[in-house]
């Protein structure tokens, strides 16, 4: 390229373009009021000591943990029996049954049946149709025509039993100063379950709630 | 502001959805048409296991109970493996079934019970478990 051509390109194209860029850089730009306000707010926030905690991945992690915690708490509170343990055992309520289990290391209880409890109410009109004694449980079932009464005494430690509570509403019933769980099931049978301080007693009958409560109050330790 | 409100709403909806799922969950097909109560207990002493299962129906309703009791062992608590099983049947409204097994190897065991509870020709199938016990 000869010198004349070079001078022509520099003078006609390059220098004017360069001058145009230079003038653009020196032009004063005015930011809007809103932009300025937002920028100042951001700068102020960044200067806070807690900013690195709340505007980083730590915030996201904390959100996940809090959400999980809230969900867990909500789930626990939704299961009624988990909020209502009573006297060393707990009742978990499901849609069609309830699970009664003793709490871990639930107190100072015998490991096996060492003394016997029985209904002392006059049941002379009933016949015993089933009686079974095991290491950890005794059953005595009575029958009089269409009426029947189930009586069970069970060791407290590692107690676990599933009861038909479909559609039933649980209530607390006082049995000789002890709080028992009572409910009417979908076979019109009323059940009472309580811890008498030594064993878990449950009795069930179709003779009606009030009559069963009277029978439950007659449960006493008898000679082995 | 809108993003925060949306995030909060999503959290609440997620929590509610999970709550409904847990609240409606039932345990292992326990239906209780003809069953009043059932329980199972596993006791292990010096590698000697006593397996007890009980089920009571309703007098005048429950006519027959067929019960299969299976002793299972787990390694890690995820899968369960067969150890031994026993079966019985009674034409009665209640059953207490006791079996023993020895010697056991050291490990974690439970009893799985599958019961067919009849009322005439109709029946329901109930599955229930004992607690897990270490030998």
Would you mind describing this structure in some detail?
- The complex is a heterodimer of chains A (224) and B (135).
- In chain A, strand 10 (190-195) and strand 11 form a beta hairpin.
- Chain A contains five helices and twelve strands.
- Chain A has helices spanning 3-26, 33-47, 51-54, 57-78, 209-216, and strands at 89-93, 98-102, 116-119, 127-133, 137-144, 147-155, 160-163, 171-175, 178-184, 190-195, 199-205, 219-222.
- Mean pLDDT of chain A is 83; it is low at 76-85.
- Chain B has a single domain (35-134), classed as Immunoglobulins (Immunoglobulin-like), CATH 2.60.40.
- Helix content of chain B is 17%, strand content 54%.
- Chain B contains one helix and eight strands, in the order H-E-E-E-E-E-E-E-E.
- In chain B, strands 3, 4, 6, 7 and 8 form a five-stranded antiparallel β-sheet that branches.
Q: What is the N-to-C order of secondary-structure elements of chain A (H for helix, E for strand)?
A: HHHHEEEEEEEEEEEHE
Number of strands of chain A: 12
Name the assembly state. heterodimer
Share of residues in helices of chain B: 10-25%
Q: Just give the CATH class of chain B.
A: Mainly Beta
**Spans of chain A with pLDDT under 50 lasting ≥5 residues?**
76-85
What is the number of domains of chain B?
Answer: 1
- Strand fraction of chain B equals over 45%
Radius of gyration of chain A: 40 Å
| CATH fold name of chain B | Immunoglobulin-like
The pair of chains with the biggest contact is: A-B, 39 and 38 residues
Low-confidence stretches of chain B: 21-27
Q: Please, how many helices of chain B?
A: 1
């Amino acid at each position: 390229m000869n010198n004349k051509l070079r001078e022509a390109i520099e003078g006609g194209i390059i220098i004017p373009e360069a001058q145009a860029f230079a003038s653009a850089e020196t032009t004063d730009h005015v930011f809007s009021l809103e932009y300025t306000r937002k920028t100042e707010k951001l700068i102020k926030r960044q200067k806070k000591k807690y900013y690195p905690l709340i505007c980083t991945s730590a915030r996201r992690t904390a959100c996940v943990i809090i959400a999980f915690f809230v969900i867990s708490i909500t789930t626990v509170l939704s299961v009624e029996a988990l909020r209502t343990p009573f006297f060393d055992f707990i009742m978990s309520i499901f849609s069609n049954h309830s699970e009664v289990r003793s709490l871990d290391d639930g107190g100072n209880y015998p490991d096996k049946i060492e003394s016997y409890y029985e209904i002392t109410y006059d049941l002379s009109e009933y016949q015993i149709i089933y009686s079974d004694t095991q290491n950890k449980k005794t059953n005595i079932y009575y029958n009089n025509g269409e009426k029947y009464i189930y009586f069970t005494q069970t060791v407290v430690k590692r107690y676990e039993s599933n009861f038909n509570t479909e559609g039933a509403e649980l209530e607390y019933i006082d049995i000789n100063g002890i709080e028992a769980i009572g409910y009417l099931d979908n076979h019109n049978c009323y059940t009472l379950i309580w811890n008498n301080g030594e064993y878990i007693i449950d009795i069930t009958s179709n003779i009606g709630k009030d009559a069963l409560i009277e029978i439950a109050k007659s449960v006493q330790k008898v000679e082995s | 502001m809108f993003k925060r409100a949306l995030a909060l709403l999503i959290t609440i909806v997620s929590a509610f959805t999970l709550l409904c799922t847990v609240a409606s969950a039932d345990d292992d097909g326990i239906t209780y048409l003809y069953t009043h109560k059932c329980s199972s207990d596993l006791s292990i002493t010096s590698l000697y296991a006593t397996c007890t299962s009980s089920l009571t129906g309703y007098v005048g309703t429950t006519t027959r109970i067929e019960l299969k009791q299976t002793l299972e062992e787990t390694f890690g608590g995820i899968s369960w493996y067969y150890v031994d099983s026993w079966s019985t049947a009674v034409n009665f409204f209640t059953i207490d079934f006791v079996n023993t097994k020895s010697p056991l190897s050291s490990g974690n065991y439970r009893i799985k019970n599958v019961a067919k509870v009849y009322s005439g020709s109709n029946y329901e199938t109930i599955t229930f478990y004992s607690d897990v016990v270490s030998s």
